[in-house]
Amino acid sequence: MFKNSARQALALELLKRHARISIVHRETGIPKQVLREAYRELHGRSPSPGALKYSTQGLARNLRKRKAVTLFAVCFQTVESHSRKDNLQIQKVLVAFDLFKKFYPDAHWIFRRHGWLHGI
Questions:
Q1: How many C-alpha atoms does 24 have within 13 Å on its Cβ side?
Q2: Is 90 exceeded by the pLDDT of residue 42?
Q3: Of 19, 22, 80, 96, which has the highest C-beta tally within 10 A?
Q4: What is the pLDDT of residue 63?
Q5: According to the 3-state scheme, what is the secondary structure of the chain?
Q6: Distances (CA, A) of 32 to 2, 36, 37, 120
Q7: How far is CA 103 from the centre of its chain?
Q8: What is the reported pLDDT for 11?
Q9: CA-to-CA distance for 104 and 64, rounded, in angstroms?
């Protein structure tokens, strides 16, 4: 029972941050249709369609994006170095993203457009 609650809580945290449905499904095992419905309920619109972009070229095209990516990498490395080894990687990404947003609150579109936290 608690394991199911933990999966649902993780899915909700990821969906709140506009994570791609495929990523949320992979991390939680919750059916994609259920996740799509939850996304629509949370955000009032359907989730973005399409495959994840695996290329990092778009993230480093200009100085502003390179700075944002570098800042996120520093945030993630900080979280990684202060986390217990048994913490889930996805939890570390969530904490790092929240830390990143404190330093750079208007940068969310960089990650969403390129599939990062729109597809962690």
A1: 29
A2: yes
A3: 19
A4: 85
A5: CHHHHHHHHHHHHHHHCCCCHHHHHHHHCCCHHHHHHHHHHHHCCCCCCCCCCCCCHHHHCCHHHHHHHHHHHHHHHHHHHHCCCCCCHHHHHHHHHHHHHHHCCCCHHHHHHCCCCCCC
A6: 21, 6, 9, 16
A7: 17
A8: 94
A9: 11
Give which of 39, 45, 40, 100 is closest to 67, Cα–Cα.
100
pTM value is: 0.73
**Residue with the two structure tokens 């729109």:** 118
CA distance 39 to 49: 12
- Asked if 14 and 93 count as a contact pair (C-beta separation under 8 A), the reply is no
